[in-house]
Amino acid sequence: MGRPSSKNAILDAAEAIVLESGAAHLTLDAVAERSTISKGGLIYHFPTKEALLEAMIGRLMERHEQLRDQARRELAPEPSNELLVEIRMLQKLSEADYHLSASLLAVTANQPELAKAFHEKYRRRFHDEIMNQERFERSAILLFAAVGLHFHDMFNMSLLNDEQRGMLYAALLRLARGGDAL
Amino acid sequence: MGRPSSKNAILDAAEAIVLESGAAHLTLDAVAERSTISKGGLIYHFPTKEALLEAMIGRLMERHEQLRDQARRELAPEPSNELLVEIRMLQKLSEADYHLSASLLAVTANQPELAKAFHEKYRRRFHDEIMNQERFERSAILLFAAVGLHFHDMFNMSLLNDEQRGMLYAALLRLARGGDAL
DNA sequence: GTATGTATACCGTCCGGACGGTATAGTAAA
DNA sequence: TTTACTATACCGTCCGGACGGTATACATAC
Description:
Chain A is mainly α.
């Protein structure tokens, strides 16, 4: 065997379980069964459950990064604007991304070691490229507004319908481009 | 005994455990021991763990409501402005509130039944009193910005120092009062 | 070209412990 | 007599993780 996709198959299974049944049902046995790999094989690839969760977070962060790149390419003609890129990326996230993010973030709330993997890249971006600007309050408000909406969606707290969400993102993007009216 | 504070003593113990050790260590046995109440007594008051969590969420929401009332009183001379109240309330939350909110929210992420208790009141306020206004985008951006910052603090994602946080809240409050410059 | 060794990639089973919940017998105040 | 417990003993389940074994592939040596 030795198929190189075993790890990915395991991660796929783990994601599916979280999305379908919630992180509470994410057990090693369940992942093994779902990925049609024995528990021993699972442990071979991911020695501990924490290692598995770390890999799940890693893949999610990669996906975010891909979406950011995609957004950056789309916005290429415009002057470089990381705040704009970040808002577009958040807008692009799918419902599956929401649920997965929420579940994994929830897990990290009780496992501080994992939180590091979650936030490290994010922090650097957040801080250096977006926050350290002349108009700090303006950038911060726009970024936090997008993030706040994202969190609402993540935890199913938002009551916005698609139209309202669209309007809100439009307003945020306009302001991130330098628009003045709020 | 029959002291009326038994329930509160139990909830105090449960909160302390979550704050000190994380929700992962919130077991019925631990709560009983910490509150110097027997496990039987604990089960007498909270027949299931879910009932206990629900009560914890209820108390947290009550505390938020109290802080809102407090903020409303402080702002009384000004024209009624629920958006302003909400932002001030979020600013008032302590670190203990952060951690408790984060932990309980994390728990609800995997127990949808609990999420209802968490969001019901919040949703009504959010929707009816703040979002249904003429300048929808403006209100939404300010509210989501405050909430986004709050979430960052909850999950230890924010890199803002106290000065920056103060500046940001000042800007949000100014805008919520009708200020124009962003 | 066969024997030997070694690393990789698993399989299947088992175990210790924890946890939520139950049961029961008794106590003490109101 | 009901309410509000205490104290203790269990039960069934589940879970993370350890362990011993197996199959394959490849390299090296003789």
